[in-house]
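Sharing a chain and its predicted structure for anyone who wants a worked example. Both blocks are below, sequence first, tokens second.
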Amino acid sequence: MRSPHGESGATVDILENQETPKAETYNTICKVEDICFINVFCEKDCAVDVVISRVSGIPLFLTFGSRSTAASFVTAVGGYYQLSVKWSVELCDEFVAPSLKFRTRFVK
């Protein structure tokens, strides 16, 4: 994730070409504040599908090679969402941050 110069707010960007580091090309898939929730589905062949549902628009489908890589991506996006949009919202029920569980105990 990065926030390119000239755009307001954080965006979720995907690196298109991972084989050639000098020719990094990023594709912006959405703004963080446009995300409603994230679902994670584990496939039988160890691939993990992540579905990013947006406020307006078609859901985005991403596939990761391992559960730990998908968890890293989902928690990073969720952390940015909590920092920039609303701290008390967890985007994915499968990967809930322990700090959010602790903080929500004090909010009524």
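Comments welcome. The radius of gyration is 15 Å.
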